[in-house]
Here is the input.
Amino acid sequence: MRLLTAADRSPILTERLTEIWYRSVRATHLFLSDKEIEKIKKYVPEAIKHVSHLIIAESDTGRKVGFMGIEEQRLEMLFLLPEERGNGLGKQMVQYGIEKYGVHEVTVNEQNPQAAGFYSHMGFRVYKRMDMDEQGNPYPLLYMKLETV
Here is the structure.
């Protein structure tokens, strides 16, 4: 497995990463309806194109299996194919973001306890909670910062 910084954000790459996003969200965001997922999916290509730092996880055969986006020192997105979860790739990616980009903040849906638990395990602690997401939807958000020792 290798991590690559994406300089070129071609339509083909964006489409592949959007598919990874879709499969990941279907497996982890169980609080979202199919209709809500389809609505959000429309915005994903723009988010991928415009995030400052886009890091892609690629298998040894060149297959894209995950990605993360970083804006300043905030992890804005981290999505893996469902079959890649649980093998250390997410941990590897977050550690890479911390080491190379100074990542120390992340926002996670409270209704996605696996993600909240993962980031907690990685050393992030909740410092703020909001009842609604940035779009005003009833999805509580947890704002987390990396705890420094």
Summary: The two ends are 30 Å apart (CA to CA). The chain has a mean pLDDT of 92. Residues 11-28 form the longest helix (18 residues).
